[in-house]
Amino acid sequence: MRRAYKFVLRPTVRQEAALRVMLRDHCMLYNAALQERRDAYRHASRTTVRYGEQSAQLKEIRGFDPDQARWSFSSQQATLRRLNMAFAAFFRRVKDGQTPGYPRFKGRGHFDTVEFPKDGDGCRWDSTPHHRQTRVRLQGVGHIRVHQHRAVRGRVKTISVKREGRRWYVILACDEVPAETLPATGSIVGIDMGTTHFFTDSDGVHVANPRFVESMAEELAAAQRHLATFPKRTRCRTKKHCAAARKVAKIHAKIRRQRVDHHHKTALALVREHDVIGHEKLNTAGMTKTPAPRPDPGQPGAYLPNGAGAKAGLNRSILDVGWGLFLGILAQKAESAARRVIPVNARNTSRTCPECGHVARENRVTQAKFECVKCGLVANADHVGALNVLNRAGLVLCAAA
User: Fold this and answer.
1) pTM for the whole thing?
2) CA–CA separation, 75 vs 122, rounded Å?
3) Nearest-angstrom CA–CA distance, 366 and 345
4) What b/e string do you get for 322-337 counting C-beta neighbours within 10 Å, with b at 16 or more?
5) What is the pLDDT of residue 133?
6) Count of alpha carbons within 13 Å of 164, Cβ hemisphere only?
7) Which residue, of 84, 103, 140, 385, is most buried by count of CB atoms within 10 Å of its CB?
8) 3-state DSSP assignment of residue 166
9) Residue among 155, 162, 66 nearest 115 (CA)
């Protein structure tokens, strides 16, 4: 089994400066490789430059550019592979008829990760603490202290260094991680994700929605208004603009950390209490799409109301809850604990009566109330949805048995 571990780095002032320079040089390498591909396609009879050709040039580049020569050769190859993956995804989207999205140049503030493909090649994870501090060694930077808050299991395969705002992290990708099997409980549960409640399970328990964005809305709005006061032409890295941008980024980072922490704790509680967990198979990207504009046929250039304002509020609530992130974390924890997660079809889960099976739109009286028009069952709509998810997950178990 594979698992990733993310730890906070504690670099010194000199090490932090070296980390910033490392990101800058890798960003320059990425952009130069992208420019070479663009020029070859536009001016050299649509010639395609591939990863192998650019990787073979690295030795020559390092020979005449000492700034590039001080960094790990393997990490530079990983940066070129990152560009190659961007082009592969671009051509796949073109082939599938999707919006292509040609790979773009990276600004210095938007290139935040350097990957070392193999432990021991330009980097070394030192699990032996020095003065009660774990360290990671990076070529060109040195031994950096790591705030290791939990044990690392398995074999360290790749090491990545990432910058988030003014924080630095090391990410270890490990394989051969042993499973931590939990004792069986004999319990099966269905959960119905929502925005009013984070989720409701088939036992009728409502888990509160923490609404992290809403709780920080005033502070975030004030920071964004201050950032918007800087004219676009003067947003070129002045000290005041940098401070305003950092403040907005800091608030967003705090919201993101709170959300991830909540999802991990909630998913762990579910995995510990139940052997089988059923949930709706949700298409979050489709559910949060902006409504298409409706042109007014009687007035050229004008548009009819399409409910975009109300939909924007719903989209904001859905994205704040983070259904996709939570279900991904739940699946990972269930796999590690030898539990089973069953995604089921979400169609009509809140309109189907769990008693008589009658399906009708009229069954859902309000957002919170369910009343079957056939048998008269009255219940909470989210609880009904969770019961239907549980029933469908049970059918999947029976079919598999």
Assistant:
1) 0.86
2) 7
3) 22
4) bbebbbebbbbbbbbb
5) 78
6) 16
7) 385
8) coil
9) 162
